[in-house]
Every structure is written in C-alpha cells, then in structure tokens.
Design goal:
The protein is built from six helices and nine strands; from the N terminus they run βββαββαβαββααβα. The protein has helices at residues 36-44, 80-93, 115-121, 151-160, 166-170, 194-208; strands at 10-14, 30-31, 34-35, 51-55, 69-70, 100-105, 130-135, 138-147, 175-179. The longest helix has 15 residues, at 194-208.
Length: 209
C-alpha cells in the first residue's frame, strides 16, 4: 500500500438521476440500517486518503461533514465520465501528490476491503496506466484507479468529442483489469432497482448468519 502521504484520493460517483429507483438519491437507501453511501465510505476510509462526493442534486447532510460535495464540472448530465473528470480536476486543484484517483459508484455496498491494494499492485510502476475492477466475466469501468495526469485529455474528450463511453476513452491508454471471485457474491453488485435492494438485504443477512 502507498504510504500515508500518498494514499490515493477517491471520487464517490453519485451524479446520475436514479431513474430505475424512481429518481432521487439512490445512495441514501438503507441497507442493514445504514445508507448505501455509508457502507461504501466505511469500507474505503482506511484505503484512501480523502473523499469527494460527486452529485448533481443538492441535498443537505448526505455524507460526513468532512466530505466535500461537488457537481459535474461539465454540463448536461454527461454520465460517469463527467464525474471522473470532476474528481480529477478537484484533486488536481488541491495539489494532490498522488499519481492516481480511485472512482467508485455509490450504489455498490459490497465494495471489497482489499480494493485499493489489489488495484494498486497492477500499476507496476506505470503511472499512466488505468486499472479497473473485474468480476462475473465483465469489467466495472467505474471502479478504477485513474491517472490524475489524464484530466486534460478527458476534458477534451467530453467537451470536444462529446464522448460518453468510459471504455472508449480508457482504451486509448495502458489499461489493466483485476479479477475478483464471487465466492461470497459479486463484490461489485450494484443497486439500480428496488428488487436489487431486496437482494442486497438477503445477502447481508446471509453474511452475518
């Protein structure tokens, strides 16, 4: 793991409009007595240096007071790439010394406790490499380590090319994937619909039995 001064910062992606959950702020749904967002923050807090929450709906007291909330730095609900760019630019403005930034969605309450350690191992000295999580036979582009140096390129792709697909952008650069097994269920299971939340409740009960 990186030393404390170089822990990767993290952008929590909540910029979408949660249509399949009926709108509103999906990450405030309760799971086992805690919000989805709290589950994710609790798991990641020992793994990252600092957080910023990217969301485009203004609601007070959605996260810990020390976590800033920022809207997309490009207009038009441009999708998760816009949130990733917003995080990059935020941490660049702060003068972060880290090479990479972690991005995670705020609807995946089972994010693993070894997420950053395993993603970081794949950097292998290449500070321009993007590292993504993989499970269940598919890549999870929003669960990734992003080189902060790609901020200008990503802004150009979003604004000048109107690019929206994460993998189209990411495949322009060195990229690796880290595979997680699903022995205890998919660690990147995300909650999009009410029935997904019910499934997550069942899974949480099984894990605590």
């Amino acid at each position: 793991m990186t030393n404390d001064a170089q822990l990767f910062p993290c952008v929590l992606l909540a910029g979408g409009q949660s249509r399949r959950m009926g709108g509103g702020t999906k990450f405030l749904q309760k799971l086992g007595g805690k919000t989805l967002l709290t589950h994710i923050i609790d798991t990641l807090r020992p793994q990252v240096g600092e957080f910023v929450l990217n969301m485009n709906v203004r609601i007070a007291d959605v996260a810990s007071p020390e976590i800033p909330i920022i809207q997309d730095s490009v207009t038009g609900f441009a999708g998760p790439l816009a949130g990733i760019l917003t995080g990059m630019e935020y941490f660049q403005r702060k003068g972060s010394k880290a090479t990479h930034m972690l991005s995670v969605p705020t609807d995946a309450p089972f994010i693993p406790g070894d997420l950053v350690e395993r993603l970081e191992f794949e950097i292998q000295g290449n500070t321009e490499k993007i590292i993504m999580a993989h499970s269940g036979g598919r890549v999870h582009p929003v669960v990734a380590l992003w080189p902060l140096s790609l901020g200008a390129d990503l802004r150009a792709a979003l604004v000048e090319e109107d690019l929206r697909k994460i993998l189209v952008f990411a495949n322009r650069y060195p990229r690796s994937e880290v595979i997680w097994d699903e022995v205890a269920g998919d660690p990147f299971f995300n909650i999009n619909r009410p029935e997904d939340l019910e499934e997550a409740e069942r899974r949480l009960l099984q894990s605590s039995a």
